[in-house]
Amino acid sequence: MNEGRKPYIAGNWKMNLDRAKALDLIKTIKGRLGDGNDREVAVFCPSVYLADVSAVAQGSPLGVGAQNLWFERDGAYTGELSSAMLREVGADRVLIGHSERRHVLLEPDDWMARKMRAALDGSLLPILCVGEKLEERKGNRTERVLKRQLEAGFSDIQAEEIRRVTIAYEPVWAIGTGETATPLQVGEVHKFIRRWVASRLGAEAGEAIRVLYGGSVNPGNVKALMSVPDVDGVLVGGASLKPDTFLPLIEFDR
Ligand code: PGA
User: Fold this and answer.
1) Which pLDDT band holds residue 185 (cuts at 50, 70, 90)?
2) Does the CB atom of residue 230 touch ligand 1 within 6 A?
3) 192, 211 Cβ separation under 8 angstroms
4) Ligand 1 pocket: which of 166, 170, 242, 245 to mutate (most atoms within 8 A of CB)
5) Is the distance from the beta carbon of residue 240 to the nearest atom of ligand 1 less than 6 Å?
6) How many alpha carbons lie under 13 Å from residue 101 in its C-beta half-sphere?
7) Ligand 1: distance of its center to the CA of 176 in Å?
8) I want to staple 125 with a disulfide (CB 3.0 to 4.6 A). Which of 47, 93, 143, 248 is the partner?
9) Is there an atom of ligand 1 within 6 Å of 171 CB?
10) Atom of ligand 1 at shortest distance to CA of 14?
């Protein structure tokens, strides 16, 4: 962690919970949240619950985000949602290029810049997710893959926008598997990502950008991960679904 970058703890509910459970969970999180001055906490919930969840979160520093968006403003895109629609139901942020969207729903790299642009132009704070598959790590291709994903996602981002953008490094092999990247592996990749941002958008941008780690984060490993110098927060799937496992993450330093 770094003094100048506020720790960011984000829960990605994916396609889990029902409306009643989502509302219970958000009420519990809101009740335990401080004033938000020393950390940023957000949940990325199924779009159909955004209006209800954001209504509960209102008046607190809790962020509420969508898990995906489409980059056009309107038109014949059956099943998709625009940034304006997401904002209208209370989202203030959005995940872009989550590994499940890239690898299960087959979203190509060349959509990412347009999605990042649509998010920023639509006043949503994007988290660009990047990460290598197991065979890519084993084949020593981790940096090559990350560079490709970063180049695609950042091709239309300007240095002055960097404070509104977050990156999440989520190795595909660590997502939902119970296997976590070691602090050493995470440190190497986060340093690589920060250097890449500095080389692309300048030293100040490299210093300012927050880079989160995601992949089987839980109350038992959060401290070690948060103490890695270039880790500014965590993006959490499974452990974000229950107060027992999510509250210790938002209180990682207590
Ligand atoms: P996980 O998911 O914590 O269940 O591994 C992380 C994510 O996909 O964001």
Assistant:
1) very high
2) no
3) no
4) 170
5) no
6) 22
7) 5
8) 93
9) no
10) 8
Write out pLDDT tens, residues 201-232: 999 999 999 999 999 999 999 999 999 999 99
Q: Which atom of ligand 1 is nearest to the CA of 177?
A: 5
Q: What is the pTM of this model?
A: 0.97
Overall CATH class of domain 8-250: alpha beta
Annotated domain spans of the chain? 8-250
Q: How many other CB atoms are found less than 10 A from the CB of residue 135?
A: 10
Q: Compute CA 187 distance to the chain's CA centroid, rounded to the nearest angstrom.
A: 18
pLDDT exceeds 70 at position 1: no
Supply the residues annotated as catalytic. Answer: 98, 170
pLDDT value at 178 more than 90: no
Per-residue pLDDT, averaged over 28-43, amounts to 92
**104-136 pLDDT, tens digit each:** 999 999 999 999 999 999 999 999 999 999 999
Compute the distance from residue 108 Cα to the ligand 1 centre, in Å. 20
Evaluate: CB of 216 within 6 angstroms of ligand 1: yes
For residue 203, the cross-strand partners are none
Q: Which burial class, exposed, middle or buried, applies to 218 when counting CB atoms under 10 A from its CB (0-12, 13-18, 19+)?
A: middle
